Amino acid sequence: MENRAKSSQLLFTSSDWNFDDLSRAYEAIKEIAVDELRLDFYPNQIEVISSEQMLDAYSSIGMPLMYQHWSFGKHFVHESNLYRKGRMGLAYELVINSNPCITYLMEENTMALQTLVIAHASFGHNHFFKNNYLFQQWTDAGAILAYMEFAKSYIARCEERYGPAAVEAVLDAAHSLMPQAVFRYRRRPRLSVEREQARIRERLEHEERTFSDLWRTLPQAPEAEAPRGVETDMSERQSAIEYPEENLLYFLEKYSPVLKSWQREILRIVRVIAQYFYPQRQTKVMNEGCATFTHYTIMNRLFDKGQISEGTMLEVLQNHSNVVFQPSFDDPRYGGLNPYTLGFNMMRDIQRICTEPTAEDRDWFPDFAGNGDWCGTLLDAWATHRDESFIRQFLSPALIRDMRLFSLQEEASDPYYEVTAIHDERGYERVRSRLADNYDVGVTQPDIQAVDADLKGDRKLRIKHTVHHGTTLQEDTRNETLRYIQRLWGHEVSMVGIDGTTDKTLYEVSTKDLGEKT
Amino acid sequence: MPNFIDRRLNPKDKSLGNRQRFLRRARDELKRAINDRVRSGKIETADQDQIIPIPRKGIGEPTFQRAPHTGRREEVLPGNKTFGTGDRIPRPAAGGGKGSDPSSSGDGEDDFQFVLSREEVLDLFFEDLELPDLVKHNLKEVVTFRPRRAGYTMSGNPTSISVGRTMFNSFGRRIALRRPKQAEIDDLAAELKKLEGERRPSAATLQRIMVLREDLATLARRRKLIPYIDPIDIRFNRFEPQPVPNANAVMFCLMDVSGSMGEREKDLAKRFFVLLHLFLKRRYEKTDIVFIRHTHEASEVDEDTFFYSTQSGGTVVSTALEEMLRVIRERYPSKDWNIYAAQASDGDNIPNDSERCVSILDKTLMRLCQYYAYVEIIDERESEMFRHADNGTSLWNAYREVGAEWPNFAMTRIAKPSDIYPVFHELFAKAPAPAKRG
């Protein structure tokens, strides 16, 4: 009798999934997510796709709509090679920060896995996208899909009008500057796709309406006037420039003396996409941690309530432990800290500190240790932190001991590495702050700014690289990238590396000396 | 209630356009790789599937990246076992680098490999040689034909009569024209016999006998008029010639390897031989290649020796022709083999030998060969001087006589790789049309 009651509560029994089971599982998960975890999320849209489609989505940086470019094809070939050789498994899901939030499920997944993935992506990631301050500030979930639609058709139209080769040339160069294409401090202007589209359309239509082949046949009499027009245009631009500018793509879009308006528009599109992904780069640990913690908590609750069977739970746990597997630094499988592990461990640790703190925890986290409200503490952390600040504030000595973290210093001039801190009383602070630094994009990204351009004179663009801790740039990729900048700027581009502390010039390189691309 | 959407039936190849763009981008690299390969590889493998690794140049996506192992950095790692603060770990040797540096992840792209089918390899290879599409098309054709059943026909020779079909037609015709059946006649005949056998036939019986006799006569007449098998019933099996690859071909590669042939000359000669070989291989099931090299004496050698060994000495071209003649007599009777020959030389020959070559060609070789191509490899600077066919080396001048007499003899000069194509154009223009041959 009891058995039957229990089995009737099960959300599903077969390991194959179907849409009825999926929506029953979804409702059960939602109940826990809303009532117990107090999550707040965008409406969900769940799409089932095949592995081939998953590879497609992978190669276009996870966006469901993307303009066409050879580099996406390259990634596709690369990834499908790996996949076919069995060297890489596909992610079980892909989730897009949009409103409604789109989650892709792979059709090959079992029902247990689909449940896990829904909890992970449609609730964990979704909550994070909607509530984290960086996403709120920098991305516009409601507009992104429409914007991508616009970007795709705009670039396709450009290819028709100006030829794929010309568009590819601009995109190649723009892609190489993507990491330098974000505003880190200024609020980005709100996207309004409709306005954007209307603006472009009007401009194109105006050009088409006023186009007359006759003009071409006119003698070039007003030759003298044209340069004056250009001249005033240039001086207007010159006076508008603000130095220094670290968003190089923005700088080129606005002030490049050679770009045509469609080329500027393409730069803008690439820039908008880079800006859209900027928060994701800064919150990898938190985002994955949040999603992993959510699925772990929800699946356990489902099991406690008797809604999933032991077999399902076993499968879930096996997958969960694969996801949070962290090999040691000396393991051949080691490839850096696993963001899933770090995030998940930290959040579980916060839960522990809130409910059953030790004396040490009370010492380190007086403001929330033992407050009992782990859920509220986590919700607050998810909303108001990025990786760097999250680690700086919440990484506890207990977890440092648990993961046996240690920090290793490498000085280029020394023939050895030095262990600077381990999991002991003296080392906690240092490990924590170094780890936080490693997740600070301000530290990990090279500091590169446009500092001077003389639009009226030789039009040379000067770029300054402030070198911190002596870490320079790889020369071959640096030179290639400079060539790309020159392509967009149209004139000489020079780059100077200045040591951040001593102001000494470390290197200077100009596209003039680089010569033609070999 | 969430919004579930089943996208599995959506078109799959969303990234097809991207992949094509990528291939276009990588094309130049591929072409270069194939040319290198054909030049350095074995002739026989030139038109097999190839795995071509392409270097990152041209398909790289550069960004500003921090150089590994410069400056000072501090990293946090998990899983400490024995380290204490202040421990020093010797830097690993450069070869056994840790590879944990994030910026080295680009190395994974080194093993980008394409598997090209032989069609693609040939396309790329021919493209470089500026072969027109027409020629490519010819290359892909096949030459001999084998009969294949293809329905029925009204005419033909008696051995190919289709009995089944013929009987089928005759049966239909017999039914349609109501040819009397044997059983019908037998019935009437039996009845007649019975009536005739009566001792005292009544008037009705006599009447009946009359009718029966008449009927029988009618039936017999009908049977005669409507034959069991009429010529119009007869059908023959129809055969259509189906193209099949021709049987055997042998190509003789004759090359002058005397001191005057340098690397450049040999490279051009090799490219020429590769193409000729491809052509033959596509037309015939089996192509043998015989390599003959000569200085002042000729010998049959294997491929490696042919291209790579250096041997020096004087130049007596006729020795190579004699060697070829010997091999043909020994192994390749001309009635079983299509014999092709290509000769590459820089045109030098000792005095008086050129006449001897002409007489060998004229008297025997040209009768045996399907096609004979002579390629003279000249210096690029000389190509201007030798633009007119009238001027040339002694061998060239002598061969012109042969060329005048034999339509299947072609001679050309090559100064650079792109010159090779006209030779093939001539080859296809002059060779018997790729229609029926025997």
TrEMBL record, chain A:
All copies of the SpoVR protein-like N-terminal domain together span 16-442
Enumerate the spans annotated as SpoVR-like C-terminal domain. 446-499
Q: Which InterPro entries match?
A: Spore_V_R, SpoVR-like_C, SpoVR_N, Ycgb-like
Under the heading PANTHER family, the entry gives:
STAGE V SPORULATION PROTEIN R
Q: Would you say which domain of life the source belongs to? A: Bacteria
The record's Pfam families line, in alphabetical order, gives: SpoVR, SpoVR_C
Q: Which organism is it from?
A: Aminobacter aganoensis
Query: What protein name does the entry list?
Result: Spore cortex formation protein SpoVR/YcgB (Stage V sporulation)
UniProtKB/TrEMBL annotation, chain B:
The family classification in the record reads: Belongs to the UPF0229 family.
What is the name of the protein in this document?
UPF0229 protein GGR00_001687
Q: Which InterPro entries match?
A: UPF0229
Q: Which PANTHER family match?
A: UPF0229 PROTEIN YEAH
One matching Pfam family, short form? Answer: DUF444
Q: Where is this region: Disordered?
A: 54-110
